[in-house]
Design a protein that fits this description.
- InterPro entries: RA_dom, RASSF1-6, SARAH_dom, Ubiquitin-like_domsf.
- This is Ras association domain-containing protein 3.
- With 235 residues, the chain is α+β, with helices and mostly antiparallel strands.
- Among the domains are: 51-91 and 102-181, Ubiquitin-like (UB roll) (Roll); 186-227.
- The chain has 5 helices and 8 strands.
- The chain has helices at 34-48, 51-64, 118-128, 161-168, 192-231; strands at residues 4-7, 19-21, 72-73, 79-88, 104-113, 138-146, 149-154, 175-181.
- Strands 1, 2, 3, 4, 5, 6, 7 and 8 form an 8-stranded mixed sheet that branches.
């Protein structure tokens, strides 16, 4: 399988996607989420990393890379590298006009620099997927794996995804990124015509599902009636 590749620097047009499935577990209410704590630690670390520390981390990161997607450190201290972002767009986009299941998504690989922010990454992803909605309707999440649980933590627009990738290392089973619509109050960001269009799409898909369900039960009923008629035939 191939993952989508694009670059914020080169703006490549050719990219491919693969479908994946993910499952989320919420942290118990009343307890701080591990993902949020990690983000705060990363912010603090970012403020105190020297050029030598960054150089050492980039070196260790590249030694651990297994897919050739290494980081490059420039003489000015800025480094470039790759992040993989899973697209989970569960509401209909203005380009496709169809609902996509929230558990399925496409994996896209972006080539970015350490100066690129979350907001810039979101804009680049929406452009590559030809999504015309405003970037403010979407958020980039950091998915952290802790033992047998998975935590999803929303990142602020000013954070730097490549730095988070550097600190966590290249393993996506430890840290991964997900682009999703906002979870709370997201419908307020849409205009009235957009909401009406969403309702029409939902009505259409509901009718299709009901029709498929009726056809399935009609087929079951027909088979059952055939079985009953055979059982009641005189021997």
């Amino acid at each position: 399988m191939s993952s989508g590749y694009s670059s914020l620097e080169e703006d490549a047009e050719d990219f491919f996607f693969t479908a994946r499935t993910s499952f989320f577990r919420r942290a118990p209410q009343g307890k701080p989420r591990a993902g949020q704590q990690d983000v705060e630690k990363d912010k603090e670390t970012h403020n105190y990393l020297s050029k030598e520390e960054i150089k050492e981390k980039v070196h260790k990161y590249n030694l651990a890379v297994t897919d050739k997607l290494k980081m490059t450190l420039n003489s000015n201290g800025i480094y470039t590298g790759f992040i993989k972002v899973q697209m989970e767009l569960c509401k209909p986009s203005q380009t496709s006009g169809k609902l996509a299941p929230s558990s399925n998504g496409c994996m896209n690989t972006l080539h970015i620099s350490s100066t690129n922010t979350v907001g810039e990454v979101i804009e680049a992803l929406l452009k590559k997927f030809l999504v015309t909605e405003s970037p403010t309707k979407f958020a980039l999440y950091k998915r952290c794996h802790r033992e047998d649980q998975v935590y999803a933590c929303k990142l602020s627009d000013r954070e730097h995804p490549l730095f988070l990738r550097l600190v966590a290392g290249p393993r996506t089973d430890t840290l991964s990124f997900v682009l999703r619509e906002h979870e709370f109050g997201e419908w307020e960001a849409f205009s009235l015509p957009e909401l009406q269009n969403f309702l029409r799409i939902l009505d259409k898909e509901e009718d299709e599902q009901l029709q498929n369900l009726k056809e399935r039960y009609a087929a079951y009923r027909h088979k059952l009636e055939e079985a009953l008629s055979e059982a009641w035939k005189p021997g």
